[in-house]
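wait is this the right file?? whatever heres the structure
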């Protein structure tokens, strides 16, 4: 574990405004790369349920749309926000579309991947709905695969919240 934390990062919300992750200090975070046209998109339902269940216990979900996997997030920020709110009643924070892999990967994602490498030590995010669990101290605790359901993650959250 490094001494760095997620709190040093600046991101843009879905409306394009700068947000310092410092504003989430002291909260347990689940950071997820999302897409509107993915086989895992229905996980928005489970993520929202998780958020409703734990948000009063200093828990936040931060969703970062990404179009790097099968071009499954082609829309604009406005399209994405409307889709999430209309189809899944998403109330957790949505952020601007980013890249999570490659030379143009968002600095936050470069950090998350270096802190908790994936299978066989590879850092790359494999697909949409990869989830990173961050502790109240801003340290990255665990990486969950796209196939790990929000319900399964809820069991982990019960232990740490």
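ok assuming it is, sequence goes like this
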């Amino acid at each position: 574990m490094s001494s760095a934390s997620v709190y040093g990062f600046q991101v843009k919300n879905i409306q394009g405004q700068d947000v310092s992750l410092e504003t989430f200090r002291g909260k347990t975070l689940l950071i997820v790369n999302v897409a509107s046209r993915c086989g895992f998109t229905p996980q928005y339902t489970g993520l929202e349920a998780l958020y409703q269940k734990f948000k009063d216990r200093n828990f936040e979900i931060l969703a970062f749309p990404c179009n790097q996997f099968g071009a499954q997030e082609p829309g604009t920020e406005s399209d994405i926000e409307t889709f999430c709110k209309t189809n899944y009643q998403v109330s957790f924070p949505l952020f601007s579309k980013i890249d999570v892999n490659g030379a143009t990967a968002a600095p936050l994602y470069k950090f998350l991947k270096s802190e908790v490498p994936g299978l066989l030590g590879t850092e790359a995010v494999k697909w949409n709905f990869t989830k990173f669990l961050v502790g109240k101290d801003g340290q990255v605790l665990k990486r969950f695969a796209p196939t790990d359901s929000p319900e399964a993650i809820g069991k982990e959250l019960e232990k740490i919240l």
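The domain at 6-160 is CATH 3.40.30.10 (Glutaredoxin). so i think its the right one actually
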